[in-house]
Automatic annotation (TrEMBL):
It comes from the Eukaryota. The chain crosses the membrane at residues 19-39, 81-101, 113-135, 141-158, 170-191, 203-222, 285-309, 321-343, 350-372, 384-410, 422-446, 452-472. This is Hexose carrier protein HEX6. CDD domains: MFS_STP (cd17361). It is found in: Membrane. InterPro entries: MFS_dom, MFS_STP/MST-like_plant, MFS_sugar_transport-like, MFS_trans_sf, STP/PLT_plant, Sugar/inositol_transpt, Sugar_transporter_CS. Keywords: Membrane, Sugar transport, Symport, Transmembrane, Transmembrane helix, Transport. The gene is LOC107760993. GO terms for cellular component: membrane. GO terms for molecular function: monosaccharide transmembrane transporter activity; symporter activity. PANTHER family: HEXOSE CARRIER PROTEIN HEX6-LIKE, SOLUTE CARRIER FAMILY 2, FACILITATED GLUCOSE TRANSPORTER.
Length: 508
């Protein structure tokens, strides 16, 4: 038997429906999880560049800043305790994602979103009120729990709620919200850094409670997806009513039939983590690992986590570094919004390729300029500093048009229902593992590789661009429950599908 479901008619790829206010509002609430995720990413890099914050929690780093003439530009912020502040969120998110998977599968997408919102609220309160390093790290761990649950459930929720024709745009709303969160954090950091008394960092950490409150309260009123309702019970009439509301039409029987067939198949799978390692799911397993891995080794977290530190490395002051992080945040958010508009017209593969080429060229140029013009002490000239900032903005734009949104979109739309929760859990876990590794090691890598850090990540960008070109089929406009077709028709992956079919026929 092939992966997923086999369409029963040619009309199965042409479901009726339109974009309704009901589905837009529901998706906006769910996508708020992306704002919190982006805010947590952006806020950490800003506060760890603030002297009062460093003096209180990381005095060793603060003292090294005051000895700048004796220490390499690239090594000032090299501290494992400091990177633990950033990376603890992601290791906690990794562990939480494994608990989130069975909850999402058993109880639905909405409960996982609600748990994520509550964890975000508690974590932001602890961070803002922290009086010692233990409170600070515990707050980050709870934020990580929120990330693990939200990132597990929100992309699935958006893909299942969206009409197939517009699924890319709806799912990219999550990445757009991530960008909005990063930008909001950068703006807030820039503003509170100027507060006299040095307590502005408390505002930065505590304000994560604002979007967390919206997500938590909103989750109480979110409708469950039709996919999840069918998967968890036999009340097909309720699922049909949800479909009619989100599609804005009474004629949803074709889509409902496909969902029921996919659910019937999924219920035969008792252990999805055992199922996903079977040969017939090899394409999905590879993508669930490769895409989040590649998304992290683009080097984007060098910018997202440590933009202010990176800009200080090239010689900008604290305030100018925070302002530069705001500029890159504006560029990233704008490019993500453009991606939302074009993804279902241009297609995933074209966006992956163009974004990869853009990122590769800009990273090579940044590395070259820093290697030639920035030594261990001193700073880049104003002209070269501005050029590096422009190139970083070009790089961020390339990422935000490709691996940023598509790294979340493509995994959430390619998994058949019977392994969807497990596969999404793997995707989230792999992403968080390598987010943690990069967050924990980047400052050490910057100290030792210096400008070569950009050549390192640029090499990975070249590899991942070739990977997508050769091995990732186009998923644009294909209904999520009919996704098996792309693997069966692919020049490389079809051998796994066909071999499995032949094996199952032999058994019967």
């Amino acid at each position: 038997m092939a992966v997923g479901i086999v369409p029963t008619s040619e009309n199965s790829a042409k479901y009726n429906g339109r974009i309704t206010w009901f589905v837009v509002l529901s998706s906006m609430v769910a996508a708020t999880g992306g704002i919190i995720f982006g805010y947590d990413i952006g806020i950490s890099g800003g506060v760890i560049s603030m002297e009062p914050f460093l003096k209180k929690f990381f005095p060793d780093v603060y003292n090294k800043m005051k000895q700048v003439s004796k220490i390499s530009n690239y090594c000032i912020f090299d501290s494992q305790l400091l990177t633990s502040f950033t990376s603890s969120l992601y290791i906690a998110g990794l562990i939480a994602s494994f608990f989130a998977s069975p909850i999402t599968r058993t109880f639905g997408r909405r409960p996982s979103i609600l748990i994520g919102g509550i964890a975000f609220l508690i974590g932001s309160a602890l961070g803002g009120a922290a009086t010692n390093i233990y409170m600070l790290l515990l707050g980050r761990v709870l934020l990580g729990v929120g990330v693990g649950f939200a990132n597990q459930a929100v992309p699935l929720y958006l893909s299942e709620m969206a009409p197939p024709k517009y699924r890319g745009s709806f799912n990219i709303a999550f990445q757009l919200c991530v960008g909005i969160g990063v930008l909001s954090a950068s703006l807030l950091n820039y503003g509170v850094e100027k507060i006299k008394g040095g307590w502005g960092w408390r505002i930065s950490l505590a304000m994560a409670a604002a979007p967390a409150s919206f997500l938590t309260v909103g989750a109480l009123f979110l409708p469950e997806t039709a996919n999840s309702l069918i998967q968890h019970g036999k009340d097909h009439q309720k699922a049909k009513q949800i479909l009619q509301r989100v599609r804005g039409t009474l004629d949803v029987q074709t889509e409902l039939d496909d969902l029921i067939k996919a659910s019937d198949k999924s219920k035969t799978v008792k252990h999805p983590f055992k199922q996903i390692i079977k040969r017939k799911y090899r394409p999905q397993l590879v993508m669930s690992i490769a895409i989040p891995f590649f998304q992290q080794v683009t080097g984007i977290n060098v910018i997202s986590f440590y933009a202010p530190i990176l800009f200080q490395t090239i010689g900008l002051g604290a305030s100018a570094s925070l302002l530069s992080a705001v500029v890159t945040g504006v560029v990233g958010t704008s490019a993500t919004f453009l991606a939302l508009l074009i993804v279902d017209k241009v297609g995933r593969r074209a966006m992956f390729s163009s974004g990869g080429i853009t990122m590769f060229i800009s990273q090579m140029l940044i590395g070259g300029i820093m290697a030639a013009k920035l030594g261990d002490q001193g700073a880049l000239s104003k002209g070269y500093g501005l050029l590096v900032l422009i190139l970083i903005c070009i790089y961020v734009a390339g990422f935000s048009l490709s691996w940023g949104p598509l790294g979340w979109l493509v995994p959430s739309e390619i998994f058949p229902l019977e392994i969807r929760s497990a596969a999404q859990s793997i995707t989230v876990a792999v992403g968080l593992i390598f987010t943690f590794i990069i967050a924990q090691t980047f400052l050490v890598m910057l100290c030792h590789l210096k400008s070569g850090i950009f050549f390192f990540f640029g090499g990975w960008v070249a590899i991942m661009t070739a990977f997508v070109y050769l091995l990732l089929p186009e998923t644009r406009n294909l209904p999520i429950e009919n996704m098996e077709k792309i693997w069966r028709d692919h020049w490389f992956w079809n051998r796994f599908i066909c071999d499995e079919q032949d094996y199952e026929k032999g058994e019967t």
